[in-house]
Amino acid sequence: MLRVYDTELRSRLMLGTSRYPSPAVLAEAVKASRVQVVTVSLRRESSGDRAGQGFWSLVRDLGVRVLPNTAGCHSVKEAVTTAQMAREIFGTSWIKLEVIGEDDTLHPDVFGLVEAARILSFARERGVVTSADMLAGGEHLSQAMNWIAPAFPHLDYLLPNDDQVLALTGESDVATAASALLARGIGCVAATCGPDGAVIADRDGVQTVPAFKVDVVDTTGCGDSFSAGFLRGLALGRSRRACAVLGCTVASLVVQGLGSDYGDFDLEAADAFARKTPATALHQ
Questions:
Q1: C-alpha distance from residue 246 to each of 5, 40, 68, 76, 268 (Å)
Q2: Per-residue pLDDT tens for 66-107?
């Protein structure tokens, strides 16, 4: 069972709705997977023509919750307009926010996303918890503080890595850097520190959560794995330290194999791993 704010879901799987050979195949995929949430791109499906109207009818008839996304948007204004349309069409405040930075790689526009999140501050006004991580490296963040700082008061959680938080603030240690970001209005900073685990900073102070002792095979996606575990902990109502422990746990499980999706485990297995594995620094 997965709880997302006030919504309980039996399945953690979310299914996309694009590139199916036919509507019938999409319907069968939804039924076979037993998903309760499907993602929909408003830009890929036009509600103004017959094909679009048929698609919306199909999605509604499936009886699943819709998570609209802004895939295909190249600017903040475009993403915000699309998100607002999604809210009106589907009657939901859920949104998967995407702003494309370049067409060749489809990497997101990091700063565009932050600006869009600031403009979409109505989410905070409705009691929705907001979080963000970062894709840009330190060299792109060293001059960016004043540029993206207006978004910080609208952000409950920032999930950077140590290089990013140091570059963003110009500080020499992670704890001081995280505290500097709190002073800018962020509610909590949970920064990953590679083999040193994570640093959590909030209004109650700064604390360190160590990594687990495992054999490192591939660190690809470990930051995202930490974020996933941390946010899952929040959804479960765990303390911020416990959320960071779960984040380090998921990263430690993923790092033991090749690829960002290595491992086959659930929440129960992750918690069991955390209980039995020595909480020391990762080793190469």
A1: 19, 30, 28, 33, 11
A2: 888 888 787 777 877 887 787 777 778 788 777 776 555 445
Q: Which of 22-36, 127-141, 175-189, 197-211 has the lowest mean pLDDT?
A: 127-141
Is 276 labeled as catalytic in the residue annotation?
no
Q: Whole-angstrom Cα distance, residue 206 to residue 174?
A: 10
Q: Output the six-digit token pair for 140.
A: 């792109």
Coil/strand/helix, residue 191: strand
Q: What is the pLDDT of residues 128-144, one digit of tens each?
A: 788 888 776 666 676 66
DSSP letters of 18-50? SS-SSHHHHHHHHHHHT-SEEEEETTTS-TTSH
Catalytic member of 31, 77, 96, 276: 96
Q: Residues 148-187, buried b or exposed e (16+ Cβ, 10 A)?
A: bbebbebbebbbbbbbbbbbbbebeebbebbbbbbebebb
The total number of residues written for the chain in this structure: 284
Helices and strands (DSSP H and E) totals, the chain: 12, 10
The alpha carbon of residue 211 and the mean position of all alpha carbons in its chain are separated, in whole angstroms, by 21
Give the residue among 146, 56, 130, 60 at the shortest CA–CA distance from 93.
Answer: 130
Residue 33 to residue 67: CA distance in whole angstroms: 17
Residue 213 in tokens? 């002792």
